[in-house]
Amino acid sequence: MLTTMATKEIIQVASFKGIQVTGVTITQTGRLFANFPRWHENLPFSVVEVSLNGEYKPYPDEAWNTWHGQPQENTFTCVQSVVAHENSLFVLDPASPMMKGVVGNAMLYEFDLTTNALKNKWVFDKNIAPEKSYLNDLRIDREAGKIYITESGVGAIVVLDLNTGKPRRLLDKHASTKSEDVWLTVEGKRWVKEGDKPQMHADGIALSRDKKYLYYHALTGYTLYRVPTEALNDETLDDKALAEQVENLGKTTAPDGMIFDRLGNLYLGDLENNAIMCRLPEGELKTFVQGPQIKWPDTFTIDEQENFYFTTSRIHEMEGDISQLDFNIFKVPLTNI
User: Residue 67 pLDDT more than 80?
Assistant: First the structure.
């Protein structure tokens, strides 16, 4: 059943003309960060901190945001996602400029938000993030010592053990991490990528409030899946045994990012209808917010005051000239859930 929730005021937080934003995250203290993948030439920065008045500056500094075309230490290559967790900012770099293939190695960085200094980094070799891979988004479970990452270029779930530093590539041959054979229609037009049907694999990711389940979804697809984190973290399970633990949760809209709120509601985009959906714990789908300005709702984050932030990355328009397009961060209140 699909129902509509109360109309909400959509507030613009920041706008970036001609600079395509994907990720957004907010800390417990209200610091807001955003990121910009290197999908076009002359990208001025990869990660910024956004102030209350909508101004922004490169994070942690300009040097990290100045890429010279080759892999180099302490420099972002192509950042896809930022996630604030406790007093850290995690920056996921699939290292695939223009989505043309991994340059060097994909990376995950952790910055200390008190000092803004690099705290940890993890390198993903080609066994974990092969040349055509694209590490997309992540969720963190400090208590279990795990980070879960979707890989949308080929299709897989990557599990990083924070205690050993060892990553594992899982479910990379399973249908749940793969694109479905569908065309998406966005703003009335069939979405075409390089003249062909886009195939974007495991993308959206969300960790249940009790951290017992990892939810995930292909971007080009309409099926939501989940798998017990206990199974993902059990290194004794072979591919077949792990695959048997995957649950098909049924049909949804076609989303990009996903997130749970504190009540266990799952939010996911509806790329084809300029909307964000809310999936209630019992499985009912409701329209959370909808409007013409919601052009490809990409990534979501929720602050301590129960404000829901999201980016509009306009991916369906990215093959043309984007110099005059506005890419935005918006927020709406989490009310009437």
Answer: yes
Length of the chain: 337
Dist. CA 271–CA 275, nearest whole Å: 7
Burial-class residue 198 by CB neighbours within 10 Å (0-12, 13-18, 19+): middle
Cα separation, 319 vs 315, whole angstroms: 8
Residue 25 in contact with residue 84, Cβ under 8 Å? Answer: yes
Q: How many CB atoms lie within 10 A of CB 174?
A: 19
The answer to whether the CB of 60 falls within 8 A of the CB of 48 is no
Interval 22-37: pLDDT, tens: 999 999 999 999 999 9
Residues 57 and 48 sit within 8 Å (Cβ to Cβ): yes
* Cα 121 versus chain centre, distance: 19
Confidence class of residue 336 from pLDDT cuts 50, 70 and 90?
A: low
Structural contact between residues 15 and 326, judged by C-beta atoms closer than 8 angstroms: yes
Task: Determine the structural domain holding residue 234 and report its residue range.
Answer: 2-333
* Local structure of residue 193 (DSSP, 8 states): B
**pTM confidence score:** 0.97
Q: How far apart are CA 243 and CA 176, in angstroms?
A: 9
- Phi, psi of 317, deg, nearest 5: -110, 5
Q: What is the rounded distance in angstroms from the CA atom of residue 10 to the CA atom of residue 289?
A: 8
Please count the structural domains in the chain: 1
Q: How many helices (H) and strands (E) does the chain have?
A: 2, 27
Q: What is the CATH number of the domain that holds 40?
A: 2.120.10.30
Contact (CB, 8 A) for 229 and 212: yes
Angle in degrees, CA 144, 147, 152, rounded to 5: 150
Owner of token pair 């993308």? 203
**What does R_g of the chain's alpha carbons equal in angstroms?**
18
